[in-house]
Every structure is written in structure tokens, then in C-alpha cells.
Amino acid sequence: MLLQELVEYQRNRRDDLNDNEEPPPPEYESRNIPWLIRLDSSGDNTSFVRTSSGNEKRDLGQRYMGPALKRSGTNIKPQLLADTAEIALGINPEEPQRALSRHADFVVLVEACADATQESSVRAVVHWLKDQLPDQRDGLTAKIKSREHIQFAVADELVVGLEAVQEFWAKVAPIIGGKGIPRELTKELILGWLDKEVSPTAMGQCLVCGEIQPIARVHPLDIRVPRQVSDQQFKIVSANKEAFYSYGLEQSFHAPTCRECARDYARAANRLINSDRNRAIVADSVFFWWLKHEESFDATILFQPSVDAVKALFETVERGGSSSLVNHEKFYGCTITGSRGRAAIRSWINTTVDSVNQNAHNWFSRQSIVREWGAWPLWKSSPPEPYRAATSAGQPAEPIGIRNLAVTLIPSRNGQPDWNRLPRFIAPLIIASAFLGDPLPNMLLPAAIRRSQVERSVPYRRAVLIKLALSFTALYDPKEDPLTSLDQNRLEPAYHCGRLFAILEQIQRSALGERNTTITDRYFSNAVVAPASVLPYVMRLSKHHLSRLRRENKGGLVHLYDEALSSVMEKLMSFPLQLKVIDQGLFLLGYYHQLANDRARAMEAAAKRKAGQAA
Fold it and tell me: Are 584 and 494 in contact (CB under 8 A)?
């Protein structure tokens, strides 16, 4: 299904190309060519032109279309008229004999092309390769690196752009890139492939298009992911070891795909993966998406949301969508990772735009929660008391994208998230939850709890993630959404234990100021799991802290703390001995909500005092 949709996307796009954009010829692809070898029509006068990509930091040369061949192993075959300097020119100071051997095959291939096409430009290249290059090779070794790619231009025209050359390569490439080709090529062998019109490639039914076609032994194009994800290139279909064979079928024959479909799905995937409008990166995963009409939907809102964008989404969904045409259009998405040259499809999404919009609406609705200083999530509703002053004074609560949610589960290393600590299946499951409305994985809540225990804090993003995880349990009522802010009427003791710890923490801070070691540093981790082992002792400590406040003539503050403690203790008949995972999440939310509420009330009181003074 994935390959079929990618091929359809590529072919639909091919039909919509404008006059300035053409599809590449068969068996061609674009690559950086740092050197052009310019010849005159006779092949005698030569100039070597260094091209530029315009990137001063890492100039790999200008990009040109040219013949492409998927190569691996030691029996490397040449690409027609466009290859590395080692193969095209026989340059490799470290292994000169290997370079000359591969160069000999390159010359044979160009000679065969010249005989088959009768193109004078190709004959000029043959003349230079055989008569001029041997005398110039030593001087070129110091000028051109063996791994740099070169192409030929005759009379200012790229030879690989000739139609006859492209037709020749379209016939030869599937054969020369196949299995069982002799180690040394001959011109007669190559021309024999054309004359006899025989192909050593296997025939079969393509699983993508359903036609009986020559099956690609090795798919011609790799999947290229952004460099920040990996420097490797990956294959979606590959079986190069016996462990991967199926019914004795090796290489790519276990998932038979014709070369045209194999090229088209890879081109579509590479275009989408390398488009900022159609992809998002989370750790080592790349999620890319598309529609049949590319411009009609932007899914980046789930990765880089803003308050205004989410507000607009809520308005669109709640009034029934923007248009039936867009809403019922198919939406496709895929999460891909890779290792050792193989791509792993971590998730596949096949739904509609309307469903994605609705699920995104529910996703942001579920993650609405006050900020740690009391600012309200404005995309959900207007702020109630006591959160208005905090919302007006500071930055409001913002919706959190998928990548920033995943960040809260891992530690930092040298000031940057240590993505190696995030299990590979986590990011795709979060993506599936956001786009499809699936529940978050069960291990996500324990992972968030552990990070809070280690860091002894509950930052805003982690509070959002904890609320999201809890919202897929029976505790959550999407109509009432009681987990947005402090809820003094909740019945769960764990929630009020978290509230109690937050109040005790503030009492200590008010009495002793900032300390090197606080009750949070000492007891927070244990309190989350076993409140009964910690809270009675910390309650006794708080009596000393309140006494100190009384001695400092802060009776009003003591009164507020006494009221807060009384309101919480009314909900607790006893302290739980042990909390289950869901209750541990409620403990952390109660702790977070209480701190946010108290800070919001403090800002509200300050705003009222300021307003009274102004009056």
C-alpha cells in the first residue's frame, strides 16, 4: 500500500509539472558534480572546470542529472559518461591498479555507446579517453580527488543530455547493474545485449503496478534522509543475507517491483522527506506526509504549533470543517527510521484530512493545562479566576509539538537532548496517537514519571505529556476536562498528596529561603511512589517552619498556609502506602496544579493591589 501510494503521488506530480521542471530520464538521478571536462568537437582541446554549489562552507559542486547505477560489493561497474574520478579517469593514488581496471570498463562502456548511438560527441570523449588522458593522468592526480564526480561536455553541451545516450543507458543500466555480469566488460558483450534484445533480469508481476515486467534485483534509488538524522542512505526493500530471504528469493525479488515503480516510489519518498513542508524530524525518525493535492493541508501544526494556529484549527473543526472537498481527501503519512542501509517503516497512516483535523483538535484539547506560573491555555477557552492576571502578565500556555513532548522523556547531554536515550518506537507511537487518535503507549507515563523523579520537578511540557497519557484512561472525561487546572474536588488521594507536597515545599521556602538541600531534593522521588513513607515526617518538619514564620511576624502567611493544609487534609483520610503508575501521574499533576494555582493567586493579588494604588 505504501509503495503504491508513493508511486501514484510521483506519477500524479509528473503530470502536473510546469514548463520549467521535467522528470529525470530513466536510470538518471541528480547529484553534485564538482568537475566538468570540456572538450571541443574533435576531443583534442580540453579544459577542466570546477563547478560550485554556492555553499561556501561545504561546496560539493553544482547538481546535474546523470546516469545512475546502484552499486555494492567489489564487482563495481561503471556509469555511462558520469562517474567518480577513480572510474572515469583512472585516478587513485592509494590503489592505482584497481583504478585502472575500473577505468578500462568505463572506456569500454563509452565505446559501446559511441558505436550504438553514432553520436559524434560520444566519439570525441572516446578519443580523449584513449589518446589524451594517459599523458594527462599524472597531472590530474594532484588536482582532482578520486571520489569526486565528473561529467563530460562537448562543444558546451553535456553528453549525458543527448537523447540517444539516454536511450542507450535506459537499456543497458538494468543489465549492467544486475547479477552475474562478468568482472571485465567487453564492447561486444554490451552491444550483444542491445542486438539480441535479451535481458538477464528476472521477469515477474510487479506488486505495485501489477504488470509483468523485468524485476529490479536491486532497487535503483536509495531513500535519503536529512543529514541531522543520518549520513546513511536506506533501502525499503532489500534482502542481501540468507536470514532475509523468503522462499529462496534473494535481493529484492522477495518483494518483486519493476524498475520504473522502484524509481518512482524512491523519488516520491525523497522529495517528501527532504521538503520542510512535508516532513518532520523527531529523534532519529522522519515522518513525512502527502495528499493527492499537495497544497491543501499543512500537518506541521502537530509538530510546531502556535496558539493562533491551534485556535484556527478549533474554529475550523467546531464549525464543521473548511470544505467537503478538502475534508474527504485522503491523507497519507509514514514514519521511517534506518540502520545499516535498511529502512524501517515504523508507522503507516492512511486516513482523511477531516479525520486528521478532528484528531488534532482532540490532541490539543487533551493537552490543555495551565503553565507553571498560572497562565491559561487560551486556545481552549478564556481564563477563569484566578488565572487572568497570570495570563495577561506573561506568556500564555502554548500547545506543545510532538518533538518537544518526546524531549521531556530524555536527559540532556552537553546542553542538548540525548536522543540516543529515547527508544526508537516511542516517537512513531506518539505520532500515531496525534494523527489517528490512538492511545499513547503504556510505557510513556512511567517514563515521564521517572524523569520527574530524577529531576525532582514537573516542568510544563512534562505536565502536558502526563496529562495526555492520563487522558486516555478512564479517569478523563473529555466533556469536563478536569485536569486543566487545580481541582479541589477530585476523589483520588494521590492527587491531593501531590498538592500537599507542593504546599509543604512552599512553606519551607518561605521559612528558610533558598537552600542547598530542600525537602524536594530529599523526599520528592519517594513521595511520588510511597506517600505514607514520607509525608508524615515532612508534615512534622513543616510545624517548625511555620513556627519560624510566626517568630518573624508573618502571621498572615501562616494563616494562608494553615488554610491550605486544612483544605487538603480534609480530602485525605490517610496517606496511601503505595501508588500505582496512574496514581503516581495524578500525584505529579496535583503537585503541578497546586504550584501553578498558588503562583496565579499571588499574581492576581499583586495586580489587585496595584490597581488599588492606581485608583
Answer: yes
